[in-house]
Amino acid sequence: MQPCPRCGGSAETDPEHARVVCCLSCWHTWVLPGERPCAGTRNLLAPGLRMLEEYRDLNR
């Protein structure tokens, strides 16, 4: 059980949807943040660097 950010009541996870929490008092629902596979920024930078490399080849 978690506290609701809107009313402070008790909230439980939704059994039908992963990472969704619903308040039992005011019916406010929200999604919990997902876990990132890696804490570093390398996975985020690699696709951007690939796009820059492809764009550079097109401009030549």
Automatic annotation (TrEMBL):
Q: Which domain of life is it from?
A: Bacteria
The name on file for this protein is: Uncharacterized protein
Organism, scientific name? Streptomyces crystallinus
